[in-house]
DNA sequence: GAGTCTAAGTGTACGGCGTACACTGTGTCA
DNA sequence: TGACACAGTGTACGCCGTACACTTAGACTC
């Protein structure tokens, strides 16, 4: 009967939780979060929707599984460097992963409870702080200060004018500027080339996300470092 | 014919965009974000679902309208105080509003473009910074640093053990602590009463959200103040 | 008044969703 | 050989947002 099984597996690999999750992630990478539906995933796997439920309890659990897959991609923290560098590198590693899976930030936020994998990640972050001599109290505050940034994203309220034709971006900014005086200042500076950001900004966008992310990250890390040394000397 | 109109209005006020939005907000306040569906809102108003579409383009626009209603509740910034105080107060005012409408943070984040009302709010925040002598560049960075916190929330990854029976909370923490060594430290401190937070913590929760929010806010504001004065002297 | 025009509210219907539940088929082991 | 477990199927239900064609009622003109 091996023949039949082989034939079967040649025409279609058996369904597994892993295959389902991988397919779901690929689908989300390609088409955004809206393209993950149980029906769509099943179709991609050449299977009837209800088949998925033999390997995954429900959609919520599937989303958790997808998050785990993504978080597992984050490189471990570098060893033998001071805490600030370790934390900085790890967070930027997380950011790189989340940029590869742009849907993940939103899904992580909209899921209620963090998955064990996420908790494990947080735990290792706590480890870095405690090893550096942070008190438990300050470590606790530190996590709250960093908030979501610790996972490599910081849902901004404004995407600025990413990937918009220059002409259109200009029209938008000046349109807005008529109503909002302070936004006008920002827009003006942008079109004078006055706002530069150290590097040449990404493809003409008004705002280099990566620069802003690191700027904020460093401000926060420096603030925490000051508190840590103050705590140590007290 | 006034009689008939009066009779009609006695039995049911005419449908308006305002009435729809107010009902939607009330519904969300009462039952969370999942209880806002076009059908549910219509039912609440004693009207057929499609009637809503005469006053609201689609569900997305309805959500935008709800956000506007909420953002409009935020008190204006105090006048005649230094920038840090003004910003702090305004952000805490925003937080108070968002605590009254717990669904709003999630909705604001999941809507793509910010509404004009939100942009107006951000613009007034920019005004505070510019008036305090921030350069346009630093003002821009500052907004990114504050991120969502500027609107009074900071989607945390962990809700700690809010509103959970003490017994259950303890079991959860110690259960987690077996697998996650650093979390164990936090749990230990909590149950020894070692982590105190200045005030008595809210109804026995491990973690006083308000305290954490203000701690993070102040750390960030202090960091920005340092950058501002450094910039001024350069 | 009679007739027309407009806009508010209705009713029906479509294609999507997650998933409950009863089924079929196939491989394993007694 | 027959019992059993379990992967995958098929059908169906009750939600969802909303397109589109309709009735109805008030306002406005002649």
* Overall form of chain A: flat
Radius of gyration of chain A: 23 Å
Percent range of helical residues of chain A: 55-70%
Q: Please report the total strand number of chain A as a whole number.
A: 0
The description of the largest β-sheet of chain A is: none
What kind of oligomer do you see? homodimer
Distance between the termini of chain A: 75 Å
- Mean of residue pLDDT values of chain A: 86
Strand/helix succession of chain A: HHHHHHHHHHH
Interface with most residues: A-B, 56 and 56 residues
Provide an overview of this structure.
Two copies of one chain form a homodimer. With 234 residues, chain A is mainly alpha-helical. The first copy, chain A, is 63% helix and 0% strand. Chain A contains eleven helices and no strands. Chain A has helices at residues 2-11, 17-31, 38-44, 59-71, 83-100, 104-110, 116-131, 136-146, 166-179, 181-191, 209-233. In chain A, α9 packs antiparallel against α10. The model of chain A is unreliable at 1-11 and 197-204 (pLDDT under 50). Chains A and B meet through α6, α7, α8, α10 and α11 of A and α6, α7, α8, α10 and α11 of B. Chain A binds a DNA duplex (30 and 30 nucleotides) through loops.
């Amino acid at each position: 009967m091996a023949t039949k099984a082989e034939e079967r597996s040649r025409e279609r690999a058996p369904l597994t939780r892993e295959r389902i999750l991988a397919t779901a992630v690929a689908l989300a990478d390609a088409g955004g979060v809206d393209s993950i539906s149980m029906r769509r995933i099943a179709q991609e796997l050449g299977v009837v929707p209800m088949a998925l439920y033999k390997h995954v309890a429900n959609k919520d659990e599937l989303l958790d599984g997808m998050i785990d897959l993504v978080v597992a991609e984050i490189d471990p923290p570098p060893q033998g460097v001071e805490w600030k560098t370790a934390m900085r590198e790890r967070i930027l590693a997380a950011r790189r992963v989340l940029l590869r899976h742009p849907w993940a930030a939103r899904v992580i936020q909209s899921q209620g409870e963090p998955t064990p994998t996420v908790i494990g990640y947080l735990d290792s972050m706590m480890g870095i702080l405690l090893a550096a001599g942070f008190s438990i109290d300050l470590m606790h505050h530190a996590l709250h200060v960093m908030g979501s940034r610790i996972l490599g994203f910081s849902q901004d309220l404004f995407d600025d004018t990413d990937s918009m034709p220059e002409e259109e971006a200009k029209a938008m900014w000046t349109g807005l500027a008529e109503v909002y005086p302070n936004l006008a200042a920002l827009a003006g500076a942008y079109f004078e080339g006055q706002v530069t950001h150290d590097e040449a900004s990404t493809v003409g966008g008004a705002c280099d996300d990566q620069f802003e992310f690191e700027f904020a990250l460093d401000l926060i890390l420096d603030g925490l470092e000051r508190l840590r040394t103050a705590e140590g000397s007290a």
